[in-house]
């Protein structure tokens, strides 16, 4: 039976995001809630991708299994006893499973046990099975115990599913609502705007999450500026970018808007760094493949990422597009940065706040023909002391094309 889908022309990404938000029904958001919600959405995406890839690999072999009638529920193949064809194939072909899983891991970068797939969770909620919480928790643990590509390595470690407690009510209800929603809208649409809306709503309810997300209107401005030709901006956007860097990536939405501005085929590779490891999860949720980006969880100013540590001539990494919206006016250990080549020639790094340090970090790794757009507190345009010396040197070196003042005491440089 063909399922009825929503008309994509009648519902926007943000409207879908609103429905996803309502599906969780949570009114209090901390970083624990944020992580658990994003983890649940990502588990669904990875499960769907894995199950569809397995179906393509095994083909009719999944359906040629005796004594069971095949049905379709919510777009997922299932046998009459509620077990999926993939789970049944695992049961009937145990000797082939290791080889098959090795193949799928090389293909996708990860594997998920059929007993923990989203479709399995959905079926458990349908029959009101009380083991949903335990099944998902076991799935997360099994995933994190696997030896997967860097993008997926220990992806769900530290996720606290207790925010959905009481588990027999909130978690199954959220899963059922999300399944019902996607059964209606399908998976064919670009869901970046929908997920970005969910993150934005979290930020508004949980003020402590504000640094994690740049408002879409602001990130759109940054992305458009950063993707213009640096030599002759009047010629319009550049045609491509070999690589793109956001060294305070937060939710990853800014990087995705850069990718949208240039076109997915015009971006070679994305590099993201943040002290919050959840950025990796959101980039995967937004639709990036594991071979399309690299992520490092660590402090940008202490420069812990090995990618940036090769200082040999001609080996320093450079980026065609650099964007960032770093945390505002944070303090840092200036003494630890003394003698750092990233800041050489621009005076002393300010002790008062890290704004100029973030700017100089990005500038240091910008290619000669590259463009950087960074969102900073407007105080960087007028504060004195060390910042005034750095500012004057940047102007003298013709490193700044424009400063755009925005509301809420923010400036794009």
Q: How much is the average pLDDT?
A: 85
The biggest beta sheet reads: 7 strands, mixed
Q: Which band does the percent of strand residues land in?
A: 5-15%
> What is the share of helical residues?
25-40%
**What are the low-pLDDT stretches, counting only 5+ consecutive residues below 50?**
1-5, 66-72, 74-79
For the secondary structure, the number of strands is: 9
How would you sum up the global shape?
Answer: elongated
Structural class: alpha/beta
- How much is the radius of gyration in Å? 24 Å
Distance between the termini: 55 Å
Report the total helices. 13
Order of adjacent strands in the largest pleated sheet: 5-4-3-6-7-9-8
- Give the SSE string: HHEEHHHHHHHEHEHEEHEHEE
Q: What this model shows, in words?
A:
The chain is 40% helix and 12% strand. It is built from 13 helices and 9 strands. It has helices at 13-24, 31-58, 85-92, 97-108, 118-126, 132-145, 170-185, 192-205, 216-226, 253-262, 278-286, 355-364, 386-396, and strands at 70-73, 76-79, 241-246, 267-274, 293-297, 319-324, 366-377, 404-406, 410-412. Strands 5-4-3-6-7-9-8 form a 7-stranded mixed β-sheet, with helices on both faces. A two-stranded antiparallel ribbon has the order 1-2. Helix 1 (13-24) crosses helix 8, helix 2 crosses helix 11 and helix 9 crosses helix 10. The longest helix is centred in the first third of the chain and has 28 residues, at 31-58. The protein is elongated and about 70 Å long. The N and C termini lie far apart (55 Å).
């Amino acid at each position: 039976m063909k399922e009825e889908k929503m008309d994509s022309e009648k519902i926007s990404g943000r409207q879908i995001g609103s429905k996803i938000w309502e599906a969780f029904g949570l009114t209090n958001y901390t970083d624990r809630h944020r992580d658990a919600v994003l983890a649940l959405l990502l588990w669904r995406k990875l499960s769907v991708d894995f199950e569809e890839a397995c179906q393509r690999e095994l083909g009719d072999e999944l359906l040629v299994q005796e004594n069971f009638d095949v049905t379709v529920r919510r777009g997922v193949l299932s046998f009459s006893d509620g077990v999926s064809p993939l789970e049944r194939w695992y049961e009937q072909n145990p000797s082939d499973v290791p080889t098959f899983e090795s193949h799928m891991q090389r293909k996708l970068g990860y594997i998920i046990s059929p007993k923990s797939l989203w479709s399995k969770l959905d079926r458990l909620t349908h029959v009101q099975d009380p083991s949903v919480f335990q099944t998902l928790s076991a799935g997360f643990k099994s995933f994190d115990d696997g030896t997967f590509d860097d993008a997926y390595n220990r992806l769900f470690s530290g996720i606290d599913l207790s925010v959905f407690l009481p588990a027999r009510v909130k978690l199954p209800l959220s899963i059922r609502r999300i399944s019902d929603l996607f059964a209606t809208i399908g998976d064919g649409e670009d869901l970046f705007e929908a997920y970005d809306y969910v993150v934005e709503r979290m930020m508004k309810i949980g003020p402590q999450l504000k640094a994690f997300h740049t408002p879409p209107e602001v990130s759109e401005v940054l992305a458009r500026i950063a993707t213009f030709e640096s030599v002759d901006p009047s010629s319009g956007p550049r045609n491509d970018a070999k690589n793109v860097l956001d060294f305070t990536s937060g939710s990853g939405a800014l990087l995705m808007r850069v990718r949208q501005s240039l076109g997915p085929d015009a971006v070679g590779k994305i590099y993201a760094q943040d002290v919050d490891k959840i950025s990796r999860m959101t980039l995967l949720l937004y639709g990036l493949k594991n071979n399309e980006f690299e992520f490092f969880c660590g402090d940008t100013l202490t420069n812990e990422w090995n990618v940036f540590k090769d200082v040999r001539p001609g080996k320093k990494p450079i980026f065609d597009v650099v964007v960032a919206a770093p945390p505002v006016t944070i303090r840092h250990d200036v003494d630890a940065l003394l003698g750092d080549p990233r800041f050489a020639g621009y005076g002393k790094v300010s002790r008062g706040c890290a704004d100029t340090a973030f700017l100089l970090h990005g500038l240091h790794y910008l290619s000669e023909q590259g463009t950087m757009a960074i969102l900073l507190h407007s105080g960087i345009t007028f504060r004195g002391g060390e910042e005034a010396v750095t500012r004057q040197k940047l102007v003298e070196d013709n490193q700044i094309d424009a400063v755009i003042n925005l509301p809420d005491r923010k400036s794009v440089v």
